[in-house]
Write a structure and sequence with these properties.
Blueprint (H helix, E strand, L loop, with lengths): L2 H22 L9 H10 L2 H15 L3 H14 L1
Helix pairs in contact: 1-2, 1-3
């Protein structure tokens, strides 16, 4: 599987997690349902994938300070 495919999986699972966190939680009938907890558990897949790519980027970069600066700028924008 390619790196792009893993990134797509991470984005989709994060979207599922955010859907569970913000939409399903606000609906009274679904707040404590199985659907809510399933969406939250699926979303937990995203973080390890993103963390792997950040660590891999730190390992492969030629200028770690510039890489960390770009990560910081993106974090502030996000």
């Amino acid at each position: 599987m390619s790196a792009f495919a893993f990134k797509v999986i991470a984005v989709v699972t994060m979207l599922i997690d955010h859907t569970g966190a913000f939409i399903l939680l606000r609906v009274e009938a679904l707040a404590n349902s199985q659907i809510y907890f399933i969406t939250r558990y699926i979303g937990r897949i995203a973080f390890p994938i993103f963390a792997y790519f950040i660590a891999n980027g730190c390992k492969q970069t030629k200028n770690i300070n510039k890489y960390l600066l770009w990560l910081g700028i993106f974090a502030i924008i996000s």
